[in-house]
Design goal:
Blueprint (H helix, E strand, L loop, with lengths): L1 H10 L5 H6 L7 H15 L4 E6 L3 E3 L2 E3 L3 E5 L2 E8 L3 H23 L6 E7 L7 H15 L6 E3 L2 E7 L12 E5 L14 E6 L3 H19 L5 E7 L3 H12 L7 E7 L5 E3 L5 H8 L6
Parallel strand pairs: 5-11, 6-10, 11-12
Antiparallel strand pairs: 1-4, 2-3, 4-5, 6-8, 7-8, 9-10, 12-13
């Protein structure tokens, strides 16, 4: 909330702030608007920054478009468009966390044996009551103990493993681990202290599809007559960077000077090799990836 206030105060000093402020009163747009002012704040802190204007007007392929904002820098003017993955991809990640909580609750209620670990993979779209499937898997896991064959119920495939044996399900970009907390440092990804692992190896494809479509949407918002920047947020550079890298040399994206993938304070930058000096002048001492 403190950062939100800082972003708002900074954004309020630029032209057309009222237009971006309207997004905060529309619940479906709230997070997109928050991401926009966060990115605007980031650009306003660059040493090359001079001025910023929200929602500038441009004619793009015969249609009036309003990119998120334009910035004036010592390198010239840039139009910036900000995109986050579609809500269905975000909801898929939240769903994974909800599934993990459901299994953890059933394990606690059933007094899951302390020497066993349950590893659950989501193998098909979630249909039916997760709580019922979780109950059946936990019950079967307690009765069977450690077994080689998985317990397949509904959209889940589960393994019962002795701790501290190695994980049966490999570490995935989209997984949750529930760890036993005590007086001994556990570290991360430590099977000896992990009672539950829930993984979904299918989320990568959801995010890849979503990011690809969001990049295409951003391109349609930006004028070919100006230097432009596309900023992708709330996703891993591991997924977004290759998608942007494929497009940076596409003639359709020739006016895109740089893609920025923001998942922390320092964005990952994707640009053409011969633009390295321009990027350094624009972003200053920021780490260039």
């Amino acid at each position: 909330m403190v950062k939100f206030g800082i972003y708002l105060k900074s954004a309020s000093g630029f032209d057309n702030f009222k237009m971006v402020l309207e997004g905060f009163f529309n619940p479906p747009q709230f997070l997109d608007s928050l991401f926009e002012i966060k990115v605007a704040y980031f650009f306003s802190t660059l040493p090359s920054f001079i001025d910023l204007r929200f929602a500038p007007k441009y004619m793009v392929r015969g249609r009036l478009k309003r990119p998120e904002f334009e910035i004036v820098t010592t390198n010239g003017l840039y139009c910036v468009e900000c995109k986050r993955p579609h809500i269905h991809a975000q909801l898929a990640l939240k769903s994974l966390q909800a599934v993990s909580k459901e299994f953890n609750a059933k394990m606690t209620a059933a007094k899951w044996p302390a020497d066993l670990r349950l590893e659950v993979e989501i193998v098909t779209p979630l249909r039916g009551r997760v709580s019922n499937f979780a109950f059946q898997i936990v019950k079967s896991g307690i009765e069977s103990g450690p077994v080689v064959e998985p317990i397949a119920t509904g959209p889940f495939k589960a393994y019962v493993v002795c701790r501290p044996e190695p994980f049966r399900l490999p570490s995935a970009p989209w997984h949750t681990d529930t760890m036993i907390v005590g007086d001994t440092p556990t570290g991360i990804l430590n099977p000896a202290f992990t009672s539950l692992r829930v993984s979904n190896y299918r989320l990568d494809s959801k995010f890849e599809t979503s990011i690809g479509s969001r990049v295409r949407e951003a391109l349609k918002q930006l004028p070919e007559s100006e230097k432009c920047i596309i900023v992708i947020g709330d996703t891993s550079p591991r997924i977004a960077a290759p998608i942007c890298q494929k497009r940076i040399d596409d003639p359709a994206y020739s006016h895109i000077s740089v893609f920025a993938v923001c998942n922390d304070e320092n964005p990952t930058l994707i640009f053409r090799d011969n633009d390295i000096n321009m990027i350094k002048n624009l972003f200053g001492t920021i780490t260039v990836n």
